[in-house]
Design goal:
CATH superfamily of one domain: Winged helix-like DNA-binding domain superfamily/Winged helix DNA-binding domain
CATH architecture of one domain: Orthogonal Bundle
Largest sheet: 8 strands, antiparallel, barrel
Number of strands: 11
Number of helices: 10
Order of helices and strands: HHHEEHEEHEEHHHEEHEEHE
Distance between the termini: 41 Å
Helix content: 25-40%
CATH topology of one domain: Arc Repressor Mutant, subunit A
Oligomer: single chain
Shape: globular
Structural class: alpha+beta
Length: about 325
């Protein structure tokens, strides 16, 4: 059943996309509603399953980690064996995201590793166990990502920030503990966090500010179930030609204007770009992509559209890799 969002719900969701950790007092001032009203609305959005979690997006690059995606097309796959594959990936600490998709690829899993050799051994181990069921496989490494707000909530242009930035930063055990807690509970109070870590709120506040300054904490965001709002989660793989910074910048700005693209991912692999977006239907997405290709005929060669119909794993706690 689709939940009908009103304007206040949309404003709250948009603000939480910008910063899911901002206090209720600030949110109430921005939205010109009482603190109690804002608190009630957020709780209702959680109860309805629209807000699944308040999360902290950590920058893998700043933690010295590489990101690789593995794309799989299966053959002769039974439901039992598919379940075995999913369970295997869910238990693997190096795998942080698993998506089941329709289209050219049947499953995508994403890995955080320290180097190429670690990536090779992780994929090799998986393939040695399940290789009989793999018809095709592609590998692509992240270069960087523009993460965007969902501008369509308010019919506006999306805002963006860079994720997966160069330059490794050192962190200690206290930092790791803070990041671990914040990864899936971004709205935890400094008092509660300090109590959990057996330290003081003042130290916690200082440490969080330093982690933000170092850009290890990239953003406090929300994890949403867009199906509850009547949308599907789509990934579009783009094959490009005549590569240039100018074309990349123009296409990025175009995607911001669309308002429903939330990840603009540059890759190294068989293709150089992926878009992740919310869309009402496959037909609507097809229309968007046709228009995009017509607008950028000298840059977009072709594309594949994938519906992400299930995400068995989405682990934002990168500290287990450190």
């Amino acid at each position: 059943m689709v939940y009908k969002l009103d304007l206040l719900d949309k404003k709250i969701l948009y603000e939480l996309e910008l910063n899911s950790r901002q206090p209720l007092t600030i949110l109430s001032k921005k939205l010109k509603k009482s603190r109690n009203v804002i608190e009630y609305r957020i709780k209702r959005l959680q109860e309805e399953g629209i807000i699944e979690n308040f999360v902290t997006l950590l920058d893998a690059g700043k933690l010295g980690l590489m990101i690789w995606n593995v794309y799989l097309e299966f053959q002769n796959l039974t439901k039992t064996k598919e379940k075995d594959i999913i369970n295997y990936l869910k238990k693997n600490k190096k795998v942080w995201w698993v998506a089941q998709t329709t289209g050219k690829w049947n499953l995508i899993y994403s890995i955080f590793v320290k180097d190429v050799k670690e990536f090779y051994s992780t994929v090799n181990e998986f393939n040695s166990k399940f290789g009989n069921y793999i018809l095709n496989q592609s590998l692509a490494a992240h270069v960087d990502v523009d993460v965007m707000t969902r501008g369509y909530f308010l019919g506006r242009r999306s805002e963006s920030f860079k994720w997966y930035v160069k330059g490794v930063e050192k962190i200690d055990e206290i930092d790791k503990k803070i990041l671990k807690e914040l990864s899936t509970n971004a709205r935890i109070s400094s008092i509660d966090l300090a109590s959990k870590l057996n330290t003081t709120p003042r130290i916690v506040i200082y440490r969080i500010k330093e982690l933000q300054k170092k850009k290890i904490i990239a953003k406090f965001r929300t994890q949403l179930n867009v199906k509850k709002m009547g949308y599907g989660f789509y990934k579009v793989i783009l094959y490009l030609k005549n590569l240039s910074k100018e074309s990349d910048h123009t296409l990025l700005e175009y995607c911001k204007q669309l308002g429903n693209v939330f990840h603009y991912e540059r890759k190294i692999g068989p293709w150089m770009l992926e878009l992740e977006m919310d869309c009402e239907s496959y037909e609507k997405l097809n229309e968007i992509m046709k228009n995009m290709k017509e607008k950028f005929p000298d840059y977009i060669k072709s594309y594949n559209m994938l519906l992400v119909y299930n995400e068995p794993k989405g682990d934002l706690d990168l500290t287990q890799q450190l």
